[in-house]
Amino acid sequence: MTIELIRGVLGWCSVINFGLFALSCLIMKLGHKFVYKMHGQWYDLPEEKVAGTLYSVMAWYKISILMFNVVPYIAFCIITK
What we know:
mainly alpha
C-alpha cells in the first residue's frame, strides 16, 4: 500500500462519515418527534433524556471522525508534500 492510497481512503472515509453525520443531524432536526417516539418506546425514557443522549452520541461521532479520519488525512497530506 502506498501513502497516496491510504490518503485517498482516509479522504473518502471523511467524506462518507461527514455525509452520514449530516444526514443524522437532519433526521434528528426534522424528525425529532419520530426519533423520540421510536426511542422512547424502546427504552421508556423521557424526551429530555433521549435528546441529551442523542446529542452526546452525535458529539462523540463528530469527534471520532475528526480524530480517526480528518487528522490522519491531513498528516498524510503534509508528509507527501
